[in-house]
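Box 3.1 A note on notation
Throughout this textbook, protein chains are presented in two layers. The first layer is the amino acid sequence; the second is a token string describing backbone geometry. Keep the layers aligned when reading.
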Amino acid sequence: MRSLSFSGLAALIVAASSVSAQQGTPAPAQSTASRRPPATAVAQSYSAEEIQTGQSRFASQCGFCHGRDAQGGESGPDLTRSPLVSEDVRGDRIGPVIRSGRPEKDMPAFTLPDVDIAAIVAFIHDAKSKAESVAGGRRSVDAADLETGNAEAGNRYFTGAGGCIKCHSLTGPFANVGSRYQGLRLLERMLYPRGGAGSRGAPFLPPVTITTAAGEKIGGKLLYRDEFTVTLIDSEGWSRSWPAAAVKVEGEDPLQAHTGQLTRYTDQEIHDVLAFLEALK
């Protein structure tokens, strides 16, 4: 059986987390995620250059919440299924939301040049168009998709090249992690431990200082970090994001080891480690 790619795993995490959070019970025969996105009210076309630029801007500014493909992330909804997006005409509805934010939904306001907002709008519409063209919408999660790893190989990675054993002792509470989490929920805890749907209580946000290329220093609490994006909550409570390669991050982050793994894992290693963790009971 062919393993899901890393991007496929991420999409499954988002989809399953959304259904679980809304229902708290197994999904019915036809879940919301399995239905087709709402049709775009006014057909629009954008140049390949606009879409490509928008993809980059979206990933750095919006991807940490809405996913890099605009189909949902850890805290943001799937924009390809948004009624607002379906009714938008060249940014007349999306633009104001980007500029003003939605404080009641913890979405910050973004101060971006008009050209960047226009590019983001182009990318969102392109993503929606692609979602509409897929028959049946996003598929549901099949447990067999995750059961392709080799537990012995996962053990070797965990205790060897991955360095996971440095933080997770197999003789303590972690020794039975497979009895507490299984399948997609365990995968979420493994890849995105900071404040994911499977975690309990408020997430720990370590204090950090961001130094920009211009030398500006911004202190705050680290909200999100992966190989592409760094986001913190500043002293005034605003969420601020930068491309990871463009800033220096100073501060102790106990979960940085998980973030660092995202650039090293192969798809097979992810499945192998998951199989190993599921065997810990």
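Residues 114-133 form the longest helix (20 residues). The two ends are 25 Å apart (CA to CA).
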